[in-house]
Predict the structure of Efflux transporter outer membrane subunit.
Amino acid sequence: MKLTLTPLFAALLLAGCASVGSVDPAQLPQAPAAYKTAAANAAPALTTSWWQPFADPVLDELVGRAMAANTSVQLAANRLAQARAALGSAQASRLPQLGASAGAGRSTPTPGAPGATQYSAGLNLAYELDLGGRLLHERNAAALDALAREQLLADARLLVQANVARGYLALRALDAERDLVQGTVAAYAETLALTEKRARAGDVADLDLARVRAELAANEAEALALDRRRVELETALAVLLGEPASSFRLTPTTWATALPAVPAGLPSELLQRRPDLAAARSQLQAAQARVGVARAAWWPSLTLTAQGGGVSSELSDLLKSGASTWGVGLLAALPLFDGGRREAGVNAAQAQLESSAIAFREQFLLALKDVEDQLGALALLQAQGDANARAVAAAGQALKLSDTRYRNGLVSQLELLDARRSELANRRAALQVRSAQYQATVGLIRALGGGWAGA
């Protein structure tokens, strides 16, 4: 029998000794030498409180409240706690297991032999020899899972911080736009009063009066649409803060948030900055460790056991030396035929490893896209903002001249309405470009993992 099992045992050992699955480094993405769009004027390094350079106390307060009560952050923290508990379990499996046992039993009386009571107590010790490294690979995989959850918690915090900043800045931009539209409504109301006065004097036609009334009503409707949009932004912020929407209020105020200058960071540092990429890398390494777990299934299982205690018919004699018993043993288990289960396990683990590598590559490419998108947006928005500023100045001058000439009866009312409509459109466009600059700045900080270092 010994000669028969030896070749099979050797084959199993060779299968178990196969190297842990690995990923070809050439299949993983590499950071580019430079971004397509380079930002100018390097700035000092940001701290972990990346929103502070916006110099807005309300934003600081909102981010603090979100970090304390946001449900997504709490859920990510709970998943980290679960992963750490699993790591503790995996670590415990590599240590000797000690247990205590106690019992009492009574035998059935037989002819010539009365029934007897037996008491027993003892300690049991077991230690599994990790021949194929299965327990080590399981522990390493659990440690990498916990690390990935820790990185995902950091990513959840960063995402919530960025969403709070974006929502707050969008709301402040909307407040500024509402003030602008409401000012235009007041101007149209003044124009309507003047037009009605001139209509009563017979200086303007009914058509002119109808046009002003239509413009006033249209702008009032636009102001109400902005009010509705503000409600939506405010309730979205409440959810991010983990607070009931019905009790959350953010008072409108002057939009005085600073816009920090954001330089591009070094591409090679991208993997270290973004916690989601770090988590994807940890998950890739965990999948690699699990290939080792699957390959270790080909090894035999060896467990050392030891036990000691006492057995006695009298409870008072249980711990005396005459009642003591002990023993040691070695338990071996060698799988001979499993219908291909172990091979399928290795194939599944290897497929999961390849899937994790693909997911890491996709995450890397999306991260680079995020950075390029925001860098490109900031560069173009700066130029667009300059053009908008010129348009606002020209439209304001045209409106001023048209209003003066209309009051003196030199131009038609239609020309005045066109000038006012153009001035409002240009000022709103300028506000929207300014808002987009804030959004792109927060987006770039998010894409860089929550900050940058001076380049």
About this structure: The chain is about 60% helix and 10% strand. Strands lie at 97-106, 117-129, 301-312, 324-333.
